[in-house]
Sequence to fold (336 residues):
Amino acid sequence: MKSSINVVMVALIATLFAGCDSNKSSYKKQLEMNVGSVPQLTFYRYEDVLFNMDTSRFQQELFAAQAEYRPFLEGDLSNPEAVKFLKDFALDPFSVSLYQKVKAAYPDLHEVKTIVEGVYRHFNYYYPEIQLPEKVFTCVSGVNPDIPAVLFVDDALVISLDWYLNGDEAYERIGMPKYMAERTTISSMAKDLGIQIYKTFIQEGHKQTNLLEEMVFVGKSLFFVEAMCPTISDQMLLGYSDTQMDWIAENEGNVWADLVGNQRLYSSDYDVFRIFFADGPFTNEYSHEAPPRLGEYLGLQIVRSYMNCHECSLPNLMQNTDLQGVFQESKYKPKK
Fold:
């Protein structure tokens, strides 16, 4: 019991120190200046290949495309079941409708190229020693929830454009919750790309311990994304509406006081983690206007405060696994 009280006292004492300015404007300008070399990228539209194949000689056309589109066609194309699967997908009415919507929304890849090149340029500034894939493939995946909208496959970057149809009715047809469908905009692509770069090339091993350390861990990933696309808004970065941002801006201090006062900060209880990290339309524990994943928001503010208090490079922040230390040195102190 004594050790538990001591742990809570550490948290309380840490919040009493004079806090650094956690307003993102104090570091945002510096992030925007950190731009590296222009990447030499090549873009391929797999959706145009797949949905325009001659179905009377489908297998032959798959073989012809295999070498150039190996991220999608690396399987055994002599296997009738594999060919049937691809053909059924290419002829499925829902898949075809998604392809048509993608072509209407993205007749060319200008927006996509601008986003990818922008993120790559910021990454090249911080990590010039890491070579990101230069081949970029777009596709229609069928909005498969088991496949990320953006992912790296071997030496290629793959982007499923049907995840970015701006809340189209197609998402309702597959049962996607409204709060998720509202995030299916082209503006989400930069965040998704930043997250996948972080998970694939930067993130180190992490063992879930307590709520505070999980918040800082997630906050680091969000700060990384912000460094990759500094012009991103907090609404887009966190997936919040304007109303939800207003609520947390007004109640940040109260939520933090609740965490500390009810000794949740160092909790490893599943239900506490669920309250602060589960996705959804809101956080019922506080209000129907409260955004979900409040732990992500608080973690980001802690990391921002830490970066405002220290002359620390992004790579050094990412390598810092002392999550408790980041919190204590952040002097994070939200106003009530």
About this structure: The radius of gyration is 22 Å. Confidence is low (pLDDT under 50) at residues 1-18. The first helix runs from residue 2 to 16. The CA atoms of residues 238 and 297 lie 7 Å apart.
